[in-house]
């Protein structure tokens, strides 16, 4: 696929690179235990069993930070979540500065002392929404319709892959390319 444009943002270039070149990605530790607990709703998992799990938080005008949604780590600086999580009552995307993301947390509260030593917390720097995906998947109405329901959050800084947050989830780019022909290919950027 060739993406031609007058000017393309560094975010788009970085997003394309990071989702395509993730070297290590998601496998759940102790898959059988996870599936059994999930089916029976009798067990919770800790952060090491699904290290790509993210929590999305909203900071209100008083400085209170509340968890509003879950998300999934897809690279060292991008988290995917539902589009409704970043919209206000009128359906407009809120400013990125009001959002926070936490990784490696087991407890819901932003400042819970029980996971404060291991949690990685980030300010959200940018939100890649439907407009971004219209550029990326121009002409493919099926994927653009799907993309209306998701956003990608870019965090300030980089996730530190450690003993808790060991890797992002896997994105099946090959399978996606079967549905969106020529997704994997050459990117030509005219600046």
From TrEMBL:
Q: Where is the Peptidase S1 domain?
A: 23-191
Q: Which GO terms describe its biological process?
A: proteolysis
Superkingdom to which the source organism belongs = Eukaryota
Which SUPFAM superfamilies does the entry mention? Trypsin-like serine proteases
Q: Which UniProt keywords apply?
A: Signal
Would I find Hydrolase among this entry's keywords?
no
Q: Which Gene3D superfamilies match?
A: Trypsin-like serine proteases (2.40.10.10)
Q: What is a GO molecular function of this protein?
A: serine-type endopeptidase activity
What name is this protein filed under? Peptidase S1 domain-containing protein
In its UniProt entry, the species of origin is given as: Laodelphax striatellus (Small brown planthopper)
